[in-house]
């Protein structure tokens, strides 16, 4: 069984337009040529795909199935073509990286920019995910390199230190806690908080802390980014727990007061993980070495 791509494109055009002539026009074909191609497609399928009606063409039940299949097939071919374009332009390799929210937004932009400027023929695909999702992606081979936070279990993956970071409490300007330099989470656990949305690593972590206390966290609002958390806190909506690196990167415009947390769990080191470094492609090994050169450098370094 063989299907011609132009025939499939024409079939979709006719199905969408509900008219053979309009479909032919969209594909820059004569109506007679389009009619011949549709007949050939139906012969290949072994079933009628379209039926004539007083006001145009309509899909048969088999035609509905063909339309869905044709759309999926053409979409996959277009994606394949897009994936091949970098290689046609001289790209030698692609490296897949999965990373948690903090690494994706704070550390990796500069690190990947430095690597890519030195390796112009390499392309990197970066996906943001929770640390457990990153571990699964690396273990399954979907990602070549992962970046995870905290003490998430990495199983049998190889792990290297990447960056040192800590969670800090941020409070609005003028808040009574603003005169303090340090605090324990238990002192503010009943206060209203601004958090990232459910499913993010930091939100899951905070819910776990609340679960250990046996009392729910008062989440006043959930937002999409750490920057939005800082903005909401600055506006007086509530308190926030964010990585110190986020505040350092944003600088003075954040207009929040930062307090160090005296809890042991506040340390949130970032780690690189791979299945087996020696089996990575040469370019993936180069990227791993580039990221690992920090060896666990802190936010201020």
TrEMBL record:
Q: Which family does it belong to?
A: Belongs to the LysR transcriptional regulatory family.
- Give the highest taxon in the source lineage: Bacteria
Gene Ontology molecular function: DNA binding; DNA-binding transcription factor activity
User: Which species expresses this protein natively?
Assistant: Denitromonas iodatirespirans
Q: Which residues form a coiled coil?
A: none
Q: Which PROSITE patterns match?
A: HTH_LYSR
Please state what the protein is called: LysR family transcriptional regulator
Annotated HTH lysR-type domain residues: 1-60
Q: Give the matching CDD domains.
A: PBP2_LTTR_like_1
Q: Which UniProt keywords apply?
A: DNA-binding, Transcription, Transcription regulation
Q: Cross-referenced InterPro entries, in alphabetical order?
A: HTH-type_LysR_regulators, LysR_HTH_N, LysR_subst-bd, WH-like_DNA-bd_sf, WH_DNA-bd_sf
Taken from the UniProt entry, a GO cellular component term is: cytosol
Pfam family for this entry, one: HTH_1
């Amino acid at each position: 069984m063989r299907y011609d791509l132009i025939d499939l494109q024409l079939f979709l055009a006719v199905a969408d337009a509900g008219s053979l002539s309009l479909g032919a026009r969209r594909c820059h074909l004569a109506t007679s040529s389009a009619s011949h191609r549709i007949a050939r497609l139906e012969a290949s399928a072994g079933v009628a795909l379209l039926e004539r009606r007083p006001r145009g063409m309509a899909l048969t039940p088999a035609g509905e199935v063909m339309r869905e299949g044709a759309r999926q097939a053409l979409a996959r071919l277009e994606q394949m073509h897009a994936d091949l374009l970098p290689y046609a332009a001289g790209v030698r390799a692609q490296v897949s990286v999965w990373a948690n929210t903090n690494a994706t937004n704070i550390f990796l932009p500069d690190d990947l920019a430095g690597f890519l400027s030195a390796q112009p023929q390499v392309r990197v695909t970066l996906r943001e995910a929770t640390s457990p999702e990153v571990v699964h992606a690396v273990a399954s081979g979907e990602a070549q390199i992962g970046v995870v936070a905290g003490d998430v279990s990495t199983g049998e993956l190889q792990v290297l230190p990447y960056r040192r970071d800590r969670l800090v409490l941020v409070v609005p300007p003028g808040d009574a806690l603003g005169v303090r330099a340090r605090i324990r989470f238990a002192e503010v656990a009943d206060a209203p908080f601004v958090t990232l949305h459910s499913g993010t690593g930091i939100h899951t972590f905070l819910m776990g802390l609340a679960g250990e206390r046996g009392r729910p966290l008062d989440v006043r609002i959930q937002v999409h980014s750490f920057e939005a958390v800082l903005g909401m806190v600055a506006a007086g909506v509530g308190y926030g727990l964010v990585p110190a690196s986020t505040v350092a990167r944003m600088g003075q415009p954040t207009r929040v007061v930062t307090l160090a947390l005296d809890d042991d769990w506040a340390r949130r080191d970032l780690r690189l993980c791979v299945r087996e470094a020696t089996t990575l492609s040469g370019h993936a090994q180069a990227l791993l070495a580039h990221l690992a050169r920090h060896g666990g450098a802190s936010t201020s370094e």
